[in-house]
Amino acid sequence: xxxxxxxxxxIPELRQKLFFTAAMLAAYRAGAFVPLPGINREVxxxxxxxxxxxxxxxxxxxxxxxxxxxxxALGIMPYITxxxxxxxxxxxxxxxxxxxxxxEVGQQKITQYTRVFTLALSFIQxxxxxxxxxxxxxxxxxxxxGALDLFLVVVTLTTGxxxxxxxxxxxxxxxxxxxxxxxxxxxxxxxxxxxxxxxxEDGSVLTMVILGIIAVMIVAAIVFVNEGQRRIPITYAKRQxxxxxxxxGTTYLPLKVNMAGVIPIIFxxxxxxxxxxxxxxxxxxxxxxxxxxxxxxxAPPSAPYLxxxxxxxxxxxxxxxxxxxxxxxxADNLKKSGGYIPGIRPGQPTALYLNxxxxxxxxxxxxxxxxxxxxxxxxxxxxxxxxxxYLGGTSMLIVVGVSLDTVRQLESQLMMRNYEGFLRRQYR
Length: 428
What we know:
Elements: H1 2-9, H2 12-31, H3 41-46, H4 53-61, H5 65-68, H6 77-92, H7 94-101, H8 104-134, H9 147-174, H10 179-190, H11 192-202, H12 205-227, E1 229-236, E2 239-241, E3 244-246, E4 249-256, H13 263-283, H14 290-297, H15 303-324, H16 327-336, E5 339-340, H17 348-383, H18 393-426
Antiparallel strand pairs: 1-4, 1-5, 2-3
Helix pairs in contact: 1-18, 2-9, 2-10, 6-7, 6-8, 7-8, 8-9, 9-10, 10-18, 12-18, 13-14, 13-15, 15-17, 16-17
């Protein structure tokens, strides 16, 4: 990775892309420290917003912007939710399927629908956040705020999400890597120094050594599974197309072990956390209320929460993999192109074989995601770590995955420019 960065620095165009990406990420991080209007900072500092398990999780994915109640307090999560929902709706709604088949023009329309959906979600979540802060569970953060002030907070939060989305799209278009993924990665990594400082102040040397070993093992496991794939051999027979004879050959169809990525974890955590937040809000901070006690039972890191969390991750992994890969469609494409799997008849038998292989390898990927998501909670509880030290398998999965994808894009850009230079020298 360091070698790729050093080589990219020598190319003016790539150097400009790196500068632009760094500038956009710096602008996003600067916005994480711009406070919302009307927020009582003293009450916020004493309210322990970052000591709650749920709000602490939000703080990690927003780079501390949620804990600071800044203009980017909602982060990029509304856009991610909208993009995932639109991707699922593309499979279910025929009109969106037609747009997806139209290529770049159709994709631009789907992207526009995603932006509008993001705007609606941002407004709804902004209103919910204001109501949550007005509940008084973390003190009178919005004390003395009138209707106009609350409306200004809602508009500011909604605008912050749209600006963050704009930053991500600019990075994707003019920078290097996927902008949305890089923003999430920058938010997660920004919390690492505080966690390390807290660990040094409150933890022992043995705890730091154990956490270091566990972190290295988790990163190695994530890289191993993310890069793992089952290669299905595909043979193409010689055939005549018009007056030309096409050459046959053997290739392979790669089936990734973790085809769903981190999306099942995001789905599962969203599905479990929001009911807990709503229940706590309905209880009004009354710890004797049965609603509050029910919220505590299913709040992280309780046993019911972890069990449901793992089961939902496995279920969503199979669901999203089925959305991403259609065995029947791939079998039909192979049959039309004259390809077949050795020992398997084309058509329906090929689809059944692909489905069988995909089911088995997806089970391993689903269990791996569940373990990665649940294990950090168990480690944190076993070592009695404070909530400010969030050892999240989800965070590590995102950071490692985005880093690998960014390095691949950087290497492909370098290879493309090396080929261009080689061709110019050959034909000069």
